[in-house]
Design brief:
Elements (H helix, E strand, L loop, with lengths): L14 E14 L2 E12 L2 H22 L14 E6 L3 E8 L5 E16 L2 H13 L3 E9 L2 H29 L4 E16 L14 E3 L2 E3 L3 E14 L1
Antiparallel strand pairs: 1-10, 2-5, 2-6, 3-5, 4-5, 7-10, 8-9
């Protein structure tokens, strides 16, 4: 009697591949957010309050001219400032002591913060220069942002790129074992938009994108949209 043919080898056990897909997309900032504070300190509560109030009124007048509103209450497309906001007053009083521990006169302080979102970077430079020269004003700096529409578009583009990155990684691992990976689970770990400081002069700017502040030329930073996903594959 002829021997029975050997039984076929059992299929290899299923393989699970877990990888992280990442994507980073850079765009030139479309908005500059000027951040500053108005502060005053002194021995007269009335004078301190008056300093902050009068300075805030000056700032409000400057920004209102740059952020006109149409009949529907929205800023027109060419408005240099799209919106601005000021916080409520914060007040404080305290008594200092001299080197011998004796109480000195009570001092009073008042402050408020404000932000203005600029579409026009030339106006941003002009206003920043003005604020540098104003008493009781401290300029914290500029935060660079993208518009909501751009962030939405980049989110879609970045998610696709992150998934393609994960698929390529899984294929690299599976190819060594002669397997074919199939995605079975996707989890978004993070999706954020952050300003990215430039290194050197890697990218040219035209004249309209530069902001001049007291003789200095400031260039809008790149804003990075980053997506990170965790993907699980089954490979057979």
């Amino acid at each position: 009697m002829a021997p029975s043919p050997p039984s076929p080898s059992p299929p290899p056990p299923p393989l699970t591949i877990s990888v992280t897909g990442e994507s980073t997309i850079n765009r030139v900032a479309e908005r500059g957010v000027l951040k500053a504070a108005v502060k005053s300190t002194g021995l007269s509560q009335e004078n301190v309050s008056s300093d902050v109030t009068n300075t805030c009124n000056q700032l409000r007048d400057i920004l209102l001219k740059l952020a006109p509103k149409s009949a529907d209450g929205l800023a027109p497309p060419d408005a240099p400032v799209t919106q601005f906001s000021m916080s409520g007053f914060a007040t404080h009083s305290y008594v200092k002591r001299d080197k011998d521990g004796n109480e000195c006169e009570r001092e009073f302080s008042a402050s408020t913060k404000f932000e203005a979102i600029f579409r026009d970077f030339a106006k941003l430079g002009e206003v920043t220069s003005t604020l540098f020269r104003m008493p009781h004003v401290e300029v914290y700096g500029t935060e660079w942002r993208l518009t909501s529409a751009t962030i939405k578009s980049l989110g879609s583009e970045s998610r696709k790129a992150a998934m393609e990155d994960a698929i390529q990684k899984a294929r690299d691992y599976a190819a060594v074992l002669g397997r074919n990976p199939v995605a079975v689970d996707v989890t978004e770990a993070s999706a954020v938009s952050t300003a990215r400081a430039q290194q050197g002069a890697a990218r040219p700017f035209d004249a309209t994108s530069k902001t001049h502040v007291d003789g200095m030329t400031l260039e809008p930073e790149d804003v990075s949209y980053k997506t990170r996903i965790n993907v699980k594959f089954h490979a057979e």
